[in-house]
Amino acid sequence: MRVLMTTTPVPTHLTPMVPLAWALRAAGHEVLVVGQPDVEATVVAAGLSLARVGHPYHVDDLLLPYLPPGKRPLQSLGRPGPAGLADGAKTFLGHARYMVPRYLEVARQWRPDLVVGEQLEFASLVVGGALGIPVVRHRWGVDPLTALLRGAAGFFLDGLSRRHGLTSLPEPDLILDPCPPELQHASAAPGAPIRFVPFNGGGVRPEWALDRRTGRRVCVTLGGQTLKLNGMPLLRSVVDAFDGLADTEAVVTVDPAHRAELGPVPRNVRLVDPTPLSLFLNDCDAIVHHGGCGTAMTATATGLPQLVLPQIMDQFAVADGLVAAGAGLAVDSAEEQDDPSRVRAALEQLLDGAGFRLSATELGESVARMPAPAAVVGDLEALIASRSPELGGPEQTTADERHRRIFV
């Protein structure tokens, strides 16, 4: 079968789907990612094929031009409530309106049997509905957004849906959920489990990964977007929190472009270039991060206690979920995050508390019990078969007839 994967123009929205794409390819199926130039490097690094459409989106421009000089989003906007989350995510409803014609053009040429879209890619629902083929939604991890957006999506995309022969915005035929149930947001609709397999890009295991200088090693990674959105003072606060922390080394991922702005660091802080977490996270005792789903789910699958410093959108729900599961702590106000003593206190509590390690291990085991992407491929094959006329599915035209009707 042919599977078309759709994504918003944010590389980290695509990466949770990469292991499923690999599994589909390994099973002999064709996979084509369709998206804007923003995701091209990620698609190529994953060894997948891309149909590039549209122009660069530059997602950081949604916030950066509107921030006061030197202020990051949390300092300017505070923690978002449900209305703020919905307003922020609605950007991608407008994006769907723009992308549907471009995605359909690719699909009508390539003729997929299935569409798989990430959780904010609502264009996939219209594309699949217009083509008469099943649509699968693939979550990133903790999902507080989809339920908030569903009503607005139906309203914003109603006219677009009707212009493509639909009575309304379709629901996905299947939701794939890589988040362990203990961590998932209460508002998220039930989904079929799929094991989270980390993909942070490829690379060579660095020599420093084997050069452990202390009894405890902590990974610090705030993500590229956080640093671009005036997050360097935050990183400075985190680095200072490690100063003099006994028998503990911090491995801090930071792009060389930001090194001069960071300035001198304590002796127990090792600055490294952005490195795939899967290359060294197993050698760490904890992680400090911004609450991005990819980072949080990678650490969860690894069984690491997590200290989360959320900045925008769903990162707060990620932090809340880890705290509720007993696998982490959160410092979620700008004032506390900017106080190295407060960050240090949370870090010491995390490292010294055996309960965090136990709960994090249990979460990791929960992830490991979920079906691997290779096992889920069979479910997708069955979904396609259930829609075929020879098996009594609801689609009563042959594939060639459907293609002639839809694509001509």
Protein model, in words:
This protein is α/β, with parallel strands linked by helices. The protein has two domains: 219 residues, Rossmann fold, CATH 3.40.50.2000; 161 residues, 3-Layer(aba) Sandwich (Rossmann fold). It is 43% helix and 13% strand. It is built from 19 helices and 13 strands. The strands form two sheets. Strands 3-2-1-4-5-6-7 form a seven-stranded parallel beta sheet, with helices on both faces. Helix 13 links the parallel strand 11 and strand 12. Helix 6 runs parallel beside helix 7 and helix 13 crosses helix 17. The protein is globular. The C terminus is likely disordered.
List the helices and strands and how they pair.
Layout: E1 2-6, H1 11-14, H2 18-26, E2 30-35, H3 40-45, E3 50-52, H4 73-77, H5 82-89, H6 91-110, E4 114-118, H7 123-131, E5 135-138, H8 146-156, H9 158-163, E6 174-177, E7 192-193, E8 216-221, H10 223-228, H11 232-241, E9 248-253, H12 259-262, E10 269-272, E11 286-289, H13 293-302, E12 306-308, H14 315-324, E13 328-330, H15 334-337, H16 340-352, H17 354-369, H18 373-386, H19 399-407
